[in-house]
Amino acid sequence: MGIESFKDHHRETRLFVARVWQAVFFILLLLGGLVVRLVYLQIDQHQYFSEMSTENRVKVQPLPPTRGLIYDRRGRILAENIPVHSLVVVPEKVADLDALLTRLGEVVTIEEEDIARFERLRRQRRRFENVPIRSILAEREVAAFSVNRHRFPGVDIEAKLLRYYPHGVETSHVVGYVGRISERDLQRIEESAYSGTTHIGKTGVERYYEAQLHGEVGLQRVEVNAFGRVVKVLEERPPTPGEDLHLALDLDLQRETLAAFGEENGAAVAIDPSNGAILAMVSKPGFETNLFVEGISSRDYRALQDSPDQPLFNRALRGRYPPGSTTKPFVGLLGLESGVISYEERTWCPGFYRLPNHQHRYRDWKKGGHGWMHLADAVIQSCDVYFYDLAHRLGVQRMHDFLAWFGFGRRAGVDVTGELGGLLPSPEWKRSARNMPWYPGETLIMGIGQGYFLSTPLELATATATLASGGVRYRPHVVRALRGPDGRVRSSGYEEAVFEVPISDRENWDNVIHSMVEVVENPRGTARRIQSEDYGIAGKTGTAQVFTVGQDEEYNEEEVPKKMRDHALFIAFAPVESPRIAVAVIVENGGHGGAVAAPIAGRMMARYLKGE
Amino acid sequence: MAGYYPSGLKESDPTRSEGLLAGIHLDLPLLTGLLLLCAIGLGVLYSAGGEDMALLKRQLVRIGIGLLLLLFIAQIPPALLRRWAPWVYVVAVGMLVAVLVAGEVGKGAQRWLDLGFFRFQPSELTKIAMPLMLAWFLAEKRLPPSWGRLIAAALMIVIPVLLIARQPDLGTSLLVASAGIFALFLAGLSWRFISGLVLAAIPLAWAVWEWGMREYQRNRVLTFIDPERDPLGTGYHIIQSKIAIGSGGLYGKGWLNGTQSQLEFLPERTTDFIFAVISEEFGLNGVLILLALYLFIIFRGLYIATQAQDTFGRLLGGSLILVFFVYLFVNAGMVSGILPVVGVPLPLVSYGGTSMVTIMAGFGILMSIQTHRRLLTG
Lengths: 612, 378
Known about the structure:
- The complex is a heterodimer of chains A (612) and B (378).
- In chain A, 37% of the residues lie in helices and 20% in strands.
- With 612 residues, chain A is an alpha+beta fold.
- Chain A has two domains: 61-247, Penicillin-binding protein 2a (Domain 2); 314-579 and 592-610, DD-peptidase/beta-lactamase superfamily (Beta-lactamase).
- The longest helix of chain A has 42 residues, at 3-44.
- Chain A is elongated and about 155 Å long.
- The model of chain A has no long low-confidence stretch (mean pLDDT 88).
- By secondary structure, chain B is an all-alpha fold.
- Chain B has helices at 19-23, 28-48, 53-74, 78-102, 122-140, 147-165, 170-186, 191-212, 215-225, 234-248, 259-262, 274-307, 311-335, 353-371, 373-377, and strands spanning 104-106, 109-114, 119-120.
- In chain B, strands 1-2-3 form a three-stranded antiparallel β-sheet.
- In chain B, α4 (78-102) packs across α5, α5 packs antiparallel against α6 (147-165) and α5 (122-140) packs across α13 (311-335).
- The radius of gyration of chain B is 21 Å and the shape is globular.
- The interface between A and B is large, with 41 and 49 residues.
């Protein structure tokens, strides 16, 4: 101790104070660096980070529009949007999906096919998007899940509007259905217009009027927190709902038609000849369209796909059948209009027809022949030989051109997606499509609606309506009017005539129509059983061969298996004086048109003309 | 030892306003600074915590406990602290070993020691024990220390630091190490030696990187260098924090109006990243005021250290206040993206109990050093 110690102490103090000053220097240096950093972030980069901050919290969310509704001609709803609760899973938020599904199964019913569909949809979507595991929960299940919600992170109940078809089976081939937007669908739409929309029209009217039904997407700018939950709505541009469709279709008539088919399969189309409006369009069997809305299970789909009755096949629009004897009034009219025959002129029917210098016998359906026939008789009794002869005298080209005026052989342009055109053959067609010459015999069978000649039920109905309206052809359409969200109603714009058949003598038309009336009213007429006391019906039966009978064989309906039996056809319109309905009916493998198809058409006309 | 002190250090005037506080061994300027900082902290916490009063109350209780501890420690004369110093150190290191052996796993790291009636983090005690020990050890002999004593001091630093790093707790081991290193620095470690250490640290750092670091620690360093590397994981913190600070601008978005924090984009906003909340809501102006307050506390602390009666007091006080600066700088540097993300809270502002109590204890020691001078001169 002593002076020594004091010196030490003094020296240590000076050393310490020096060190403190050095520390102060470093502190100021480091804090200075920090301040420089802060100035850089808060002054220099302020603009950039402000934008980043806004980008963080402000999200633009699409507001999907409400899909337009579909009504029948009397305002009954055919397609609506019903509120449902569905159970959705966000795969990203779930660690063990299998375990989750097992536990979830304890709370709500989850079946094999739910899981299968979930797996399928999951592959189509991004990980952070929700995938439905159950689309429509019962109220009891909603309650059961809500109580247990905390046990299932990543699982949520979503309330939404689901498309529902109250008459799904009856209108399946007209209204069609919507389904979830697929990769393929994305190619036909503008993705931004569909942001937020999950469903799109897949078939039928739902698809054809997709643009009108869908409406316009709205937007809202929202403030979200870090978890994406909306905290505040900053700006909203509401969506424009889709337009409602008012169909010309009459649900009662549609149902009556289906009922009239009974056990049979086939198609029927009813058109208002005065404007082309489709009053009924049936393809039987139909199917439950509601199955498709949330994604059909593969089991259900396979059942539909594999059914021998082909319920998914839209026969009315895509079924191509030989029109058979229903062609005869048109060919007869051409005979008169072209002056090749007169109404009274008679032809001998021995039961077969032979082309000059040919051995082949073209047989009549009636083995012994009909004897002397004029046009009316030939239509009433559906004599084949008369029309073989007429066709031979007319030639294929004239028949082709005339039938084309009635809309045969081409798509009618109906406002239901999926239509196919028939086939109206000609030498030119045969040369280009088959690279073969036209044989005279083919002209004969074309005259009775056989051979290459194919027509869809819609085409046949259009042609019948054209005949009924005195040659004015309209574009067949199911939608009469659209009603916008503002309540304004506009016409679908399809009620303009698209073609008028040139007429040389009105009387020829009357005569042919008269012969068709006789088909129903004459004791020898092929459709006499559908006579009505209230109005006159003009009709024509037809039989389309499915199975070609050999030259010397007999066709015996009882012996041929059902699948091989002829299709039964019938076309008609009524009332004759001022036609309000024209129908075409095809009963697949139904046998003779007069026996099976005509009564269906009869019930349809009765239903429509007599009402309730 | 009595009788050799310069007259200027003898007495503070009992009639001055701080006399009353000095009576209970509190330093008015330092206490004012601390209370102001705690008050600011509570205000920011109210906003960052989503106006959660319960959260605020819990923090208020901690501040209260911290202040009581400060008051208690301030009554202990430095001479007593000096006598206890080696024992406190031994107990702290012993508990660190116990934690590794029997510690409870919490947050993926062993930090807690369960003493049955309460859980305790021995690493927090080490933050006090380390400067106590080194100050005691270095003040025993003449300064600057001899080579032999230097090596002994280095061992005293390295053992607890490694024990804490093994838990693993990067932030605390950094703070504990700096406490020891600052004591050495203030004891007059030659600059030549320091630069030699820095040069030696480079290969050492490489070795630590290669063998001494856990995957998550390496990730933190890598993410620090390039936050975009893992924008959804570790980098997310830094990116969101930079957005918060940068969007605050010069004036800030206003109290309770910081979108980054209010909408929960900013992670750990009440704890380690609360500095970003201040920057966002009060802007550069607010941050500068805050830094000025911190600087005031630090300068006051350094002043107290220089005025200490003996080498022990000087080294202890200086080391404690420099560690306080390290808290501030590491936290602010990490939040603003110039330092890696190590779990160091913003002292006295971040929500959380243990660091609050330890820091208050440190200031208790500083106040003891400041206010017991005249008693020793007598």
